[in-house]
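batch_manifest entry 22 of 60
target: Acyltransferase
source organism: Dyadobacter arcticus
requested by: lab member K.T.
priority: normal
notes from requester: please return tokens only, no post-processing; we will run our own comparison against the previous entry in this batch. if the run fails, retry once and flag.
--- input ---
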Amino acid sequence: MEKQPGPISRLLSLDAMRGFTIAAMIMVNFPGSEEFVFSTLSHTKWNGLTFTDLIAPVFLYIVGVSIAFAYSKRLSISGPKGDLYKKIIIRSLKIFAVGMFLNMMPHFNLSDLRYTGTLHRIAIVFLVCAILFLNTTWKQQAILGISILILYWLALVLIPTPGMGKVMLERGNNLAAWVDQQYLPGKMWQGNWDPEGILSTFPSIVTGITGMLAGRLMLTSLTSNETSNYLMSSGLIVAAAGYFWNLTFPVNENLWSSSFVLVTSGFASMLFGTLYFIIDIKGRKKGIAPGVIFGANAIAVYVLADILALFFYTFEFGGKALNEIAVSFMSQAGMDPRLASMIYAVFFVCINFIPAYILYKRKIFIKL
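--- output ---
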């Protein structure tokens, strides 16, 4: 019989990791100028990996860890779980609905509506992983995750793309894009394909599962140092496996390829293990306050950023938006336009920190 996980105190490392991830997400989503961006602060065009490509999977990994912490006590309680399932479903629907609201901003044109996005994927991954956590063992979760990655890989490299007559892994010309073209309603982000499409959602769920497995590890009877070591060493092994899988199935965020899942989950595990060792074991907490504050209302701050962006990126003053004015001023002063664009993005992150700080100080925690 599987040992039931026990209680664990709140981890500052996880809160800080969540908050800094959201801050990074805002920074790369809102550069000062879309035209001038350092390559690592942009998503890869297709195959490859940048800093920006790491952000979404790291957050889904954190979602998985959080699920393990939030629902571990329920595993030792017998009886119906109907109320818990209801709460999980309602929370997922709220996150998805907020994602739809952001997709409609600012014009609310229903004829040009996109049904996918970052929050949509978070909602789906949370829903599936939470239900899995309550009904399966960690071994079953691991087997399911590995099976999904293998089946996804085989499907994309063995099944010819309909209409093409051959296997293709090109932008807009692959099995995942074809499925979206046939069955995904509404507008697609890239015209004829979507990076948060139907098939790629399955391996993204595995990213959440890797976080749940890490959370299970945290809840065992291992010592803190042993847990940290296991997180970092297993992360290195998983990332290395993804690197070698890349030889036959390229690391690709747009496809959320199986190799991408392993490389990014491995990185997330190493990062989590490192932060856990430094912050929670060694007690070194200097500099983590911004992350903890952002992390306390992570999704709320992410939503707020889209709303504040209307003023800082959309509304025009004298014929230009604030970001255009700022980047132009810094560029004319002799600064690299890419650096000017990044500085404005960091400035916008700081703007979002103000309401996050106010909410945190007033102990207001908005849980979608």
